[in-house]
Write a structure and sequence with these properties.
Oligomer: single chain
CATH class: Alpha Beta
Helix content: 40-55%
Number of strands: 9
CATH topology: TIM Barrel
CATH superfamily: Aldolase class I
Mean pLDDT: 92
Amino acid sequence: MSRIAATFSRLAGERRKALIPFITAGDPHPDQTLPLMQALVAGGADIIELGVPFSDPMADGPTIQRASERALAQGMSLRRVLSTVREFRANDASTPVVLMGYANPLEAYGIEAFAGAAREAGVDGVLVVDYPPEECADFAATMKAAGIDPIFLLAPTSSEARYAEVARMGSGYIYYVSLKGVTGSATLDLDEVAARIPQIRARVGMPVGVGFGIRDAAAAARIGAVADAVVIGSRIIEEIESAPASEAAMRVREFVSGIRNAMDAATQGVAA
């Protein structure tokens, strides 16, 4: 069983939901990525989404765009991202790591070469924003052959055909984009998301994580009560941006811990 599948299985047995925080590798400096990953786990993260910085992040709002710019300015690259995951694995053999990014860096690296290097580093899943499932059967097969889950996005506007392709190609979990727009938007309709989750889960047959627009503990708790996972990124990047470098990991740990506690309280209330 993969680390991602094992994590969702364990959480289901505990009647808890997965907390999946996102940070951009290399932001604010490559040397701080490993301590930030460790702070996420200490705060209660179940899976880490690690952004691979890219110069044209079309699905990301200004907060994550700034994070990518800072990381690239410090020389962060896909090879250094994989090196950081390898360092993380030296002391954490259980927390899944999902790389999230865009096709260009992977294709420049070489898909076959990337699959082998990612497996060796300890990567568990890859979400490529600009790889629609209808056009990447070979990519998905290559990832699965390497023991890496290809994770796909679904959105409120996704068609029935897209649902079917995602169910066929994807594994690990589905990332449901909870609103129309870019990351960090503040127009999340919690009731609409709650109504859609059971439909999505029934169609794709795998856990559903919800992201985009979740900015506080209250929203995370409400989403966590109905989804299998909560993904939160821009708000964490804001904590990193506003903190002195020496305090960034501590601030991130405290913020994530607050989200974790709120989610657990909500699901325990549902279970009761």
